[in-house]
Design a protein that fits this description.
- The protein is α/β, with parallel strands linked by helices and about 170 residues long.
- Helix content is about 35%, strand content about 15%.
- The strands form 3 sheets. It has a 4-stranded mixed sheet with strand order 4-6-7-8, covered by helices on one side. The chain has a two-stranded antiparallel sheet with strand order 1-2. Strands 3-5 form a two-stranded parallel ribbon.
- Helix 5 crosses helix 6.
- The longest helix is centred in the last third of the chain and has 16 residues.
- The radius of gyration is 18 Å and the shape is globular.
- The N and C termini lie far apart (about 40 Å).
- The mean pLDDT is about 90.
Length: about 170
């Protein structure tokens, strides 16, 4: 559906969180377009722009052109899923083969060191805030804290460990 400022304004006045996107093939979504983004930038206190998909996998290594970050962005947030732990990276990391071709020595299984290395190698240049999601129990929380420690050693010190599933808990 086309951009309509009056509908966006009505949603904001009603206190709603506004989600703007253009439907693409395969149940995916893309940018709502420059007109909508320009309006959102002028009228919203905060604007989050998804810049990079991972084909519904919990981990990702970005290609050279990713993430596509708008010039007006002030922060980069990288979200990775702890559900990848102890599983084969080839099955849980989008573009795992690209990470290997770039010489990222991550091994075959997603452990704390591999996840930290994927994040720092792929996204470290952006000085991101990292969200480690799916810390749904005490063991996953502890493993998330290990990744946080490894990321701090590589210079990434803004890390949030979260569980959206379990009572929306969040640790930093």
């Amino acid at each position: 559906e086309a951009f309509a400022a009056d509908r966006y304004q009505a949603a904001l006045l009603a206190g709603q969180i506004l989600v703007a996107a253009r439907p693409l093939a395969d149940a995916r979504y893309g940018s709502p377009g420059e007109e909508a983004l320009s309006w959102l930038r002028r009228n919203c206190r905060m604007l989050y722009v998804e810049a990079d998909g991972a084909q519904r996998l919990p981990l990702k290594y970005p290609a050279a052109w990713e993430p596509v970050i708008p010039q007006y962005a002030t922060k980069v947030i990288v979200v990775m899923g702890l559900s990848a732990l102890d599983k084969p990276l080839a099955e849980t990391c989008y573009r795992y083969d690209l990470a290997l071709r770039h010489g990222v020595p991550v091994g075959e299984t997603a452990d704390e060191a591999a996840i930290a290395l994927l994040i720092s190698s792929g996204y470290g240049r952006y000085r991101p805030t990292v969200v480690l999601n799916q810390a749904d129990n005490a063991q996953m929380l502890a493993r998330g804290r290990k990744i946080k420690s490894l990321l701090a050693e590589s210079g990434i010190d803004k890390v949030i460990i979260a569980s959206i599933k379990e009572a929306q808990q969040c640790w930093s």
